[in-house]
Prior knowledge:
Blueprint: E1 12-21, E2 31-32, E3 38-50, E4 53-64, E5 69-73, E6 81-85, H1 92-95, E7 104-110, E8 116-121, H2 124-134, E9 140-152, E10 155-166, E11 179-189, H3 198-203, E12 205-216, E13 222-233, H4 239-250, E14 257-274, H5 284-291, H6 297-302, E15 305-319, E16 321-326, E17 329-334, E18 336-341, H7 372-377
Parallel strand pairs: 7-10, 13-15
Antiparallel strand pairs: 1-3, 1-9, 1-11, 2-3, 3-4, 5-6, 7-8, 9-10, 11-14, 12-13, 14-15, 14-18, 16-17
Amino acid sequence: MAEKEGLKQGRNIVFLTGKVKINDRSFSGVQESKKSDWQYTRINLGVETAEGNVVYTQLMGGYSAGNPVLFAFNKEQGQGMLEINWEDRFNDAILDQVAKNSFYTIEIEKDEKGNAIEKKFLSPIDVEEYLKEHLVDGMEVSIVANFEYQEYQGDTQRNVSIRSIKLPYENKDGEVRYQARFTQTLLVEDNAYKKLTKKDIEEGEITIPANVVQYVGKPIRKNMPFNIGVTAKIDAENPDKTKKVLDKLFKVPKGKVREIAIEGDIIQGYDQENISAEDIEFSPEIQELIDMGLYSEEEAESKMSIRGNKVSKLVFTRPYIQRTDEDGEVKLLVEIDDEKYTPDDLIVVSDTEKDTGSEAQDSSDDEETDESWMTALGL
């Protein structure tokens, strides 16, 4: 009997659009490891995607002074990894052999015609040098990244690792739509979600435990599961609708492990508690501004919020759906599989090194109100 294949990494992509936040810790410069001859840099950038919501991203990497080479995927499948000498990292003949997803892509300048100037780098060290010269605090950017997971003192830590930084898309009115979105494949066990309780409805949300798959380096060198929690918001006006969705997606048959790809929002900042319209009473000064047409009542009400606890959440919005075109017929398919894994495939992870994921296409043009996935689920 053939040996069963191990866990596979699924979808893992982050889309951020907002104002970049740069401080004196954003660019470390080239550092040398205290334990080896490793020369590296660490980039830390915040992206403010909404008032009070700042998602922190990072990029770290370098080379060994004793063996100064970079590794990259060959664009020809099946040809293995390329080993590129440090001094050849800008050699066009060599770079032409490198797969697209091995580059860090930066597009934050425009030429004389207003077109974005693409810069591609193999090393975070070169990315840092370029960003230090061209990236400005408060600049609007779009970042594509991957989640990276590791275990520390029994808890899963989640980082956002940069793959590309570009100028954001502007609509015909020159407006930019800010976002902090993700797509992630989960492994959900049969005891993760049972039902929506009255307490859940009162609290307005429920956290569903799940696993994500991440490659772990030395000494394990294999894909391993990491525990995370995914938050689902409950529709206060129609909790039965939320219940139907959660039951359909996250209620797993006994003895099964469900693989499911989801989309969601990244909340990293502070909970905001809005005051109900019935409790709002504008001061004479604010009412005068409204009467003068300088503010609408809705704009004034939106500022009547209370800053709550510091939070870091992955908030489920919908399942990821594939659009297929078979025999000229467009179909929507939800990525759900209850047969791929068993509970025995999910084991405890130790705290070790890890490698990065891969980049996927940005889905930021999808409408947030699109509920075609509910039709695909039969809801």
